[in-house]
Specification:
This protein is an alpha+beta fold. Helix content is 23%, strand content 40%. Strands 2-3-4-1-5-8-7-6 form an eight-stranded mixed beta sheet. Its EC number is 5.1.99.1.
Length: 133
């Protein structure tokens, strides 16, 4: 794993949350994107080399909707940049971690992604991210 790629924050109201983070970070959202496969709208902020991703549900059965219902707004996941997501997935699986998908899938911000189950990471949902090219 190369570095922290971003921190994902689940929010109920994207417009209000974007306004809040624009004030907090002193910078505008640089990208909004719908990820239909996950039932989520995203908004990205960059501050220095770091990124924040806001996530809101587009469907009641989406993972973000379930998260918000169970835990409320707040940190949803931490994402790590990787050079070779397939190799990193194999390494983690061999080390006993539970992956939430068998193959990398398309995520927001032109990334290939895979999630690691929080049961094996002290309750933290971990996302692996590789530039899709």
């Amino acid at each position: 794993m190369n570095k922290i790629e971003h921190i994902g924050i689940a929010v109920k109201d994207m417009d209000a949350s974007c306004a809040l983070y624009e004030r907090l970070l002193g910078t505008a959202c640089y990208k909004k994107e719908l990820v239909e496969s996950e039932g989520v709208n995203t908004a990205f902020f960059r501050t220095g080399e770091n990124k924040i991703e806001l996530l809101t549900a587009t469907a009641e059965e989406s993972p973000i909707a379930r998260f918000l219902e169970k835990k409320g707004e707040g940190i949803h996941h931490i994402a790590f940049d990787v050079t070779d997501i397939v190799s990193e997935m194999a390494r983690l699986k061999a080390a006993g971690f539970i992956l939430l998908n068998e193959k990398p899938k398309r995520g927001a911000d032109n990334k290939l992604v895979c999630f690691v189950h929080p049961k094996g990471t002290n309750g933290v949902l971990v996302e692996l991210c590789q530039d899709a090219g």
